[in-house]
Amino acid sequence: xxxxxxxxxxxxxxxxxxxxxxxxxxxxxxxxxxxxxxxxxxxxxxxxxxxxxxxxxxxxxxxxxxxxxxxxxxxxxxxxxxxxxxxx
Length: 88
Fold this sequence. Notes:
By secondary structure, this protein is mostly helical. The protein is built from 3 helices and no strands.
């Protein structure tokens, strides 16, 4: 499933359930306000793309352990999915 999600050039479909640990209504991060959430996004994006990484990757909730290349691809696909979702 991970190979298809990361490398097959198809759009991710809408409606895939979010893992509970990532769902803002369950165990994920609750939104605060747009300005501070956007600032936090920018900070996390910079950390996510920093070289060398100042952290070790945790296992992905659905795919388990992933290497650096897989995490970067997932980040791209995930961002693309949400930007399309909101028409950006």
